[in-house]
Amino acid sequence: MTPTAQSPTKAAAPESAAAPAPAAARQVGERARAIFSRYGIFLIFGAMVIVASFLSPAFLTTTNIINVIRQMSIIGLIALGVTGVIVSGGIDLSSGSVVGAACVVAASLAQLPDRAFYPAIAGSPVILAIAAGCGVGILAGFVNGLFVAKTGIPPFIATLGMYTAARGAAMLYTTGRPLSHLSDAYNVIGQGDFLGVPVPILILAGMAVVTHVLYSRTKFGKYIYAIGGNEQAARVSGIDVGRYKILMYSYAGMLSGLAGLVVSSRIGSGQPGLGVGYELDAIAAAVIGGTSLSAGGIGTIPGTIVGALIIGVLNNTLDLVNVSAYWQQIIKGAIIVGAVVLDQRKNRGDR
Amino acid sequence: MGEWALRMQGISKRFPGVHALDEVQLHVRKGTVHALMGENGAGKSTLMKCLIGMYAPDEGTIELDGRQVSIGDTHHALSLGISMIHQELSPIPQMTVAENIFLGRYPLTWYGLVDTRELNRRTAELLGRLEIPVAPERKMVELSIANTQLVEIAKAISYDAGLIVMDEPTSAITEAEVANLHRIIRSLRDRGVSIIYITHKMDEVFNVCDEITVLRDGRFVDTKPIHALTHDLLIQKMVGRTLTDMFHKEATPVGDPILEVRSYSGRRFRDVSFQVRRGEIFGVAGLMGAGRTELLETIFGVHPRSAGEIYLHGKRVEIREPADSIRHGLALLTEDRKLTGLYLNATVRDNISIANLRRYLRGPFVQFGKVAADCERMRAALRIKTPTLLQKVRNLSGGNQQKVLLSRWLLTEPEILILDEPTRGIDVGAKAEIYRLMVDLARSGKTIIMISSELPEVLGMCDRIMVMHEGAKVGELARQGATQERVLEMATGLTPIASA
Asked: Which CATH code fits A68-350?
């Protein structure tokens, strides 16, 4: 909370509901600002789409739009979980490594038995591979949460440990080799489509809706916001803070596992080196979408999805107009920082 | 009366280097309001934290309704029917009033989601019953401190607990709201609820409490029914010595006008004019939301003004930001020490010297010897109780924290000191010392402008009192003509009086 937020008399104005009449003109301006501060990120996204479609006629085609969303679906999935973790006052640096660990375990089950790395388990039903991938994610998240909740070490450190360890585990599991020759059923996850919509997009859409409801409408979600907003208050209200943190990190881990399934299925190979740097892209998506890294308890799923879309549209547009990949990175960096600067302005304006 | 709601017996709690509680006892009868009194550092908060399971006592027993209990955590305490209003307000800023009050106890719909409608309905019903004028859907961050505190009170009551601990429940609310809270407390008491009431405000104790337990330096001093005590006797028990007169106000010579504010308007106040003189203590009274803090913060340059002029020594000055006013010899002690004043994790020395480091530089290096000498002088002059200047400010009591902040500004050698609620949340002994300091400063020719919501303090300390109501100046009262009733009348807007 900023100092001004607690200044008593300042905030007393709207409560007394006795705003003097001449303020009417100013109210219009404040209203506009309020709308912008609430929907600003959506407006910016809209503006980007318009600009992009002017810059390149190829942008606003069905194929391209689907392409953009499919590309962002993997980061999007991770960002759904990362948003919750950040809202709870934490951070998850391990997502990318968990992608790697989850996908090799899943792939080892989904390999065709005749050319498998682990012949004993290869060729399992795809549902088992999916469960194993998510399971690896949940396990990693659970361990993250356990350390955060029970030892009190900063989440940055706990998940930094997992970032290294999970990658090591993935390498160990396949002795560094990729696991290819996956079953067709498994490859549907990343390559298939349903009624013309790619499966990764359907997975993202489904998980986004589920996660949105989970965060905004369930007890679990409300507690996560409460813990991030003021952990001590949550504790004295009788909330088992540790338990909810463990659940939160586990859920985020599961989504990283899911992202691992999608990415390995998409390229038809489970590789221990997959997912490097994904955690930072996911954090960027959440932050651009309005999740606050400095104050817990702030962030939404619609915001994060738009944040991920902004990154996706940006990459896509720059590709379409032939901007070099190096420049793209610089521009992306500027956008991340710019979004946060804007966000802080906005928060100050609110008060 | 008669049955014990709570018997804490022989409670001891040690922290590294501190014996915070030493065989303390607290016996609270069912259906009574029990005041827990003592200076800051006396062990009240520690004792209460032992009660609600935030600390585990090293020794001692706790009996609730005659049954011995061992309270593991706050959740357990709540389930045993003990709730607490915490001194440090603990709202979750981005959540609504309703979500804060029923945190941990949300009603669910049949399909498992949080039932927001039911949640808001229950909250509205609770707030209505308690006559707290706040909408359930509002976000906490939008509320004033006063309303935040009222919401915390509502939250503690919402647990339907048999024992409610109220730690400084009225530190931020107005007289009218205090009266309302006391009405609520009496009706709770009449329904058999027991209340432990911690406050520094004597009037409230005599107004609402049935029995008093006094702690001093982590030890039990006495428990007495209220009618067996007088104001003076109580203070004597708390401080272990007699405070003959809280307010050592002396008639200090008042000199020429030094600061004149003409027709100042800004956010939350309008058209305020006043003049203060050298050596004067000038009080600004009014209810919460009267615009006092805004007025003085605007004068200091924290917020932009919309109209008005400032004259210093008869010369027009332009103040756009705090740096301007500091240069012109003004200093501002803000209302909320922790939020806008102190660096809690920094040392006493750094906190005192931070606004003046430039004076101690030789080249790029800070001359710590000089810093230490000045800080030591301040510590002696203000009697700051700290083992060393390198102690973290976090570990000091509220009164000593306030003195550290005061030292910082005194080192800038201001002519005019603006003190916003300078004794909020500090204990009687420390208050008396702050008052003594104010008199010393005035005698040495400094001018003090004090915002205070505590009427006895305003009446006791100030040469003149300006009263504000809803952003406007109602009038001024000279020390002789000022009474509690008169100030309240003006502050509540009952009798608009022209400038006296």
From this structure: 1.10.3470
